[in-house]
Structures are given as structure tokens and as C-alpha cells.
Design a protein that fits this description.
By secondary structure, this protein is mainly alpha-helical. The chain folds into two domains: 53-165, no CATH class; 185-260, Cytochrome c-like domain (Cytochrome Bc1 Complex, Chain D, domain 2, Orthogonal Bundle). Helices cover 47% and strands 0% of the residues. It contains ten helices and no strands. It is globular. The model is unreliable at 9-28 (pLDDT under 50). Bound molecules: heme C (HEC) (2 copies). Residues 195-196, 198-200, 207, 209, 218, 221, 229, 232-233, 237, 240-243, 245, 256, 260 line the site of one heme C.
Length: 266
């Protein structure tokens, strides 16, 4: 064998083993944790060894919010085929459950009854209490068409559990027109300062998901989309190492939400 050929042979062997190492890594990502102990990435994108009802509901809520961020998948291309032409949104966001069904889960009969998020599509409240497998098949079929490559069966189950058993109804607490929240602000302040402030700061301005010119802080969000903030408090933020209050009384989340409306918006 010429030295030239030998180099080629070695290069091929090296390449093949590198490819199979990547394959093995990919496969492991979905089955077992990447290391022998649980990692922050497991917390953000994967499930605990024995998922509890509390965890399942909140994990389903994060999938409802944004499934590709929650699960660490590829963002879908183009708009969802069932998103109405008359709607004002386009692109990947139209694949989020929340875009068609709303932060109050009430579609055209609630928060998204008018304005730029209006689609005319009904909410999912009518599906509360429905059989989990029926909800799962509904999401695989038209008009939804979510494939196992997008959301795996086990993950779809979490989402169905959220739909069937995890929907909060805040109608009594949040005024749809004004956004005013009926809650105990003083108690909310105590909860915020001892829980949320660890990451968001006492004034909610430590994390900014907007820009320097147009900041988006908790205060900003709470004064524009209180239902969205409530959803995050109850389920966490998809793709982020954020806690959630799913395991605590609903009133706790409402009191925190009421307080966040007094935080600085810019
Ligand atoms: C592009 C818009 C769109 C998106 C995104 C979307 N849906 Fe739907 N959904 C619909 C339409 C349209 C219907 C049918 C409503 C009807 O019966 O008129 C529906 C119906 C439903 C129903 C049945 C409601 C009932 O009472 O029968 C459930 C549950 C549901 N969707 C859950 C979800 C979940 C969970 C997701 C996210 C994975 C999702 N949807 C994403 C458009 C959408
Ligand atoms: C352990 C850290 C941590 C704690 C505790 C925490 N958060 Fe978060 N939160 C995050 C991170 C990280 C993000 C993602 C920020 C980003 O996208 O830049 C986030 C995002 C958010 C968002 C949404 C951002 C968006 O894009 O819409 C809201 C609202 C929010 N948190 C509210 C709260 C509230 C209220 C509490 C207390 C109940 C809380 N968080 C507690 C880490 C935390």
C-alpha cells in the first residue's frame, strides 16, 4: 500500500468512528442522561426518572407555551397550515399551542377574542377532563399534525395531561379588559422577594428578555400580559432554568402576579 493510500484509509476510519460517536451521543441524549449524574440540561429539557403528577402538569404547560424550546427541538419552518390567513402572526410562533388557543386557554371566547392575536379558533377549556389518549390522537391528526419527530409520545402525554388536568382558570382574578389582578399584593411581595428575586432581582430587572432600548422585565410583562406571567409562574419558562409554583396553592401565584404589576416596566 502506498503511503498516500494509507493516509486515506486512516482518514476514513477516523471519520467513520467520529460519525458513529456523534450518533451514539445523539441517541443517548434522548434515552439516558449524558453523564452519570443529573444535569441542568436534564432539568430544562428532559424528565425526572419517575415523573410525578405535579411535574407532568407543569412540563405539559411548558410544551403548551413553546414545545421546541421546552424539548430542545428544531424550530419548525414556515407557518402552521391551520393558522388562518386572516391572522396577524406568521412563522414558527404559529406552531405554538398558545398562539391559537391563548394564555387563558379560552381562544376566541377570552383574551384572544379581538386584537392582533385574534384567530377565531376556540379554546381548550372544553377539553379539560377529557381522556388523555383521545387528546393525544387529536394532536397527531389534522388540523394539528404534530409528528413524533416534533413531540414524542411520552412528551405528548405530558401535554395531554396539562390539557386534561392542568388548566388554571383565572377568570375570577384577572379582569380581561383592564388586566387588573385581584390578589394580596403584600403577601405577593413576600413571596416574590423570597422566590423570584433570586434570579430576577428584587425589582424584577435582573433578567431582560427585550433589548437595552426596549427592555422586557417581569414588571413590563405583568403590565401587558398578566395571563402569560401567570402561566410562567405555574409552569416555568420553556428552555430556561426557572422554577415553578405548580405544587403550591393557586392563590400563591395570583398574589405574586398582583405584586409583579407594581414592579418597574422599564
Ligand atoms: C394553528 C392553530 C392551532 C395550533 C397551533 C394548535 N391548535 Fe389546537 N385546535 C385548532 C383548531 C382549528 C381546533 C379545532 C377547533 C374546532 O373544533 O373548531 C383545535 C382544537 C383543539 C382541541 C380540542 C378542543 C375541543 O374542545 O374539542 C385541543 C385540546 C387542542 N386543540 C389542543 C392543542 C394543543 C395542546 C396544541 C399545541 C400542541 C394546539 N392545540 C395547537 C388550532 C390549533
Ligand atoms: C432559578 C431562577 C429563576 C427563578 C427562581 C425564577 N425565574 Fe423566571 N426566569 C428565569 C429565567 C432564566 C428566565 C428566562 C429569561 C430569558 O429568556 O432571558 C425566566 C423567565 C421568566 C419570565 C418570562 C420571560 C418571557 O420571555 O416572557 C417570567 C414572566 C418570569 N420568569 C417570572 C418569574 C416569577 C414571577 C418568578 C417567581 C415565582 C420567577 N420567574 C422565578 C429564572 C428564574
Amino acid at each position: 500500500m502506498t503511503p498516500h493510500r494509507l493516509v486515506r484509509l486512516f482518514a476514513t476510519v477516523f471519520l467513520l468512528s467520529a460519525v458513529s460517536a456523534v450518533d451514539a451521543q445523539e441517541a443517548r441524549k434522548d434515552t439516558a442522561p449524558a453523564s452519570d449524574h443529573s444535569t441542568l440540561d436534564d432539568f430544562i429539557h428532559r424528565a425526572p426518572p419517575q415523573p410525578t403528577e405535579i411535574w407532568l402538569r407543569s412540563a405539559g404547560g411548558r410544551i403548551y407555551d413553546n414545545w421546541w424550546e421546552a424539548l430542545g427541538r428544531k424550530k419548525p419552518d414556515g407557518s402552521h397550515p391551520a393558522y388562518p390567513k386572516s391572522g396577524q402572526r406568521a412563522g414558527a410562533n404559529t406552531w405554538r399551542c398558545v398562539e391559537c388557543h391563548g394564555w387563558d386557554y379560552n381562544g376566541k371566547d377570552g383574551l384572544y377574542g379581538s386584537g392582533e392575536r385574534f384567530t377565531g379558533i376556540k379554546g381548550i377549556r372544553t377539553a379539560a377532563g377529557r381522556d388523555i389518549t383521545r387528546i393525544m390522537s387529536l394532536l397527531r391528526a389534522a388540523p394539528h399534525g404534530y409528528t413524533p419527530e416534533m413531540i414524542k409520545d411520552e412528551e405528548l402525554r405530558r401535554l395531554a395531561i396539562f390539557v386534561s388536568r392542568g388548566q388554571d382558570n383565572a377568570d375570577r382574578f384577572i379582569d380581561l379588559k383592564t388586566g387588573n389582578v385581584k390578589g394580596d399584593r403584600t403577601r405577593g411581595a413576600g413571596l416574590f422577594h423570597t422566590i423570584c428575586a433570586a434570579c430576577h432581582g428584587f425589582d424584577g430587572r435582573l433578567l431582560n428578555w427585550g433589548t437595552a432600548q426596549e427592555p422586557a422585565y417581569i414588571g413590563t410583562e405583568a403590565n401587558t400580559f398578566p395571563h402569560e406571567v401567570l402561566h410562567k409562574i405555574r409552569n416555568g419558562h420553556p428552555g430556561a432554568a426557572m422554577i415553578n409554583l405548580r405544587g403550591f396553592p393557586f392563590k400563591d401565584a395570583i398574589d405574586i402576579l398582583a405584586y409583579t404589576r407594581s414592579l418597574p416596566t422599564k
